[in-house]
Design a protein that fits this description.
The chain is α+β, with helices and mostly antiparallel strands. 36% of the residues lie in helices and 23% in strands. It contains 16 helices and 18 strands. Strands 6, 7, 8, 9, 10, 11, 12, 13, 14, 15, 16, 17 and 18 form a 13-stranded mixed beta sheet that branches. α8 packs parallel to α10. The longest helix has 24 residues. It is elongated, with a radius of gyration of 24 Å. The N and C termini lie far apart (61 Å). The N terminus and C terminus are likely disordered.
Amino acid sequence: MDWVVRGPFGNLMVSFDTEQILLPDGRARMSSEQGLSSRPSPMPKLRFGSKASGDTARALLETLFEGLGRRERRQAIETYVVGLLLCPERRTVERIAQYLAGNGEAGNAMRQRMQRALALADWDESIVYARLARHVLTGAGPGVYVIGDCAVRKRGEHSPAVARQYSGTRLENCQMATTLQLVVGAKAACVGAQLFMPKKWAADSARRDECQVPATVTFRERWQLGLELLERAASWKLGVGTVVAGSDYGRCPQFRAGVAALGFDYVVLIPANAPLSLAPLNVTTNHSSERLCSAAAVTSAETLALGLPALERRCSVAREVEGSFRWARVRAHDRLAGSAELAAQWLLSETSGNGTTARFWLSSFPQATPLYHLLGLIDANDFAKAGQHVMRSELGLDDFSGRSWRGFHHHLACVAAAQVCRGFASDRSGHAHSANAAVQSTEQVIAAHANEHEALA
């Protein structure tokens, strides 16, 4: 018997190696006569509809978790990923075991194995992330790293690092994780995550012991966590040379300097009140429509952008809305240090069609960089948010109910694996994208701006 997971890039087929019985509601359950309570449950096979490709999602999972402990542990982790793909509604360990193996001894045994593999077993999730990144980039175009935040809302106060803090939209009780996503074309894969430890948690030894927080984990700002994730990604040597980041990171001069020191070019969001000044342009620039200007007084990004010419009706794959954008070469200033960054950078300002929403981007790309190339990179931030929405709404990102530091990070790695199985693996099978879910790649996004760029010349 097969189950089908319908994803945006193809249907994921799931079948079992052993005989099954059907529950009254039509679900498949392992028969208790098979003695599953005394031995590891069989791993569900995963494959995509195209048999000609010979590439199965099960083979991908085996590759991702290869060498991470005994076979029983790896099977339990892989089964958990399958459960994240299959289980409807809330995807906790208990519900996954019940859905896959029923309420009897088989389900209880499966639950215990998955709980041990997630919360107790000592395996390095960074190995899984590195393998995910390599898989995503295999045979694909250049990728972009996107640094951002992920809020996991909680009701209680016993989950690791949970506190009342800003979640990106409002103050609420949640866990905050800094994430690293790899965007290829119009799809995103999470390839790194680190839970943010608030100061009160870092100083509370009783709560740390309860959640088994390692002694090496101390309070660090989120931008510092982002740099650590990028440093790890740089060690993979995958040829990714661009970083896109949100305003919580882009506003910090230390973060921008750290990204540049790692050898990345960046495109980062900055707040509207970020202090900037116009930078003089080289007369040999190929952007002939840009004004030559001398260094000016320091002003906010919003005020500076209002005095720049606008190109109307910019549409992209990520945001099919009309609007305008403005651009200039600027220097960023550090309010605390009272100094300016020496290198000139790009300021890009986006305004929605009704003029109510504006975003400001700062980029370290050189002056000769085509503007439409930068506009294509900006879309990566929106693709990353869309990928995180899929992880949250369809793959159980918020559903982990454990209370251990290690278990939370293992859960995030398993959700990332499920995301890749659901999205990227289908591309390897040769499965055609459905018409209503077809998306354009970053290269197509850049090409879409080419005509607009000619208007700038």
